Model the fold of this input.
Amino acid sequence: RKYKRTIIEYCCSKDSSLGKTAPKDCKVVRLTAEDDMTTKKGYNKAKEAIIAAKGNGLIRSSIPCTGGTPWHKLNQHLGRGIEHHAQMLRDYSRLWKSFVIIAKAVNDVGGMIAIEWPRACSYWKRKKVKEIMNEAEEQANVSSPVESPAKEPESTVSVSVDSSALTAIPE
Done:
């Protein structure tokens, strides 16, 4: 089957709503927890999708944002959940490191990069997040922020939240 474009969903669920609603001419490659994006196996699956997309791809990151939410700052201030938060940051760091490698490969062949986190997520302020989006901006226009729906974890119901997606998309 021939596809016009490819969406590579990074850190999504096996039955993500984006993948379910993609047009028929759009191939969807889901990179899930089962693929373990911190391993060579996960990287190889992503690499195959990038090659097959032939520059007509979008990588959309859904790395969990829970470690960057304002609630963690409040909990830390109150002395709660400090180790849990530290583990979330370690998980984010491992996934982000892998995402950057894959996103740069997508960007290098003319593909697009999208990252979706709530607007208040502190990850947006991280130097490495800004760096990858600046690199993408060199090849495409960047629109930021845009309102986007977010999905409640372990739910199929979309809920409206104050959220943004920074996306490098040619106009």
In short: Strands lie at 5-10, 26-31, 57-61, 112-118, 142-143, 150-151, 158-159, 163-168. The longest strand covers residues 112-118. Confidence is low (pLDDT under 50) at residues 141-171. DSSP finds five helices and eight strands in the chain.
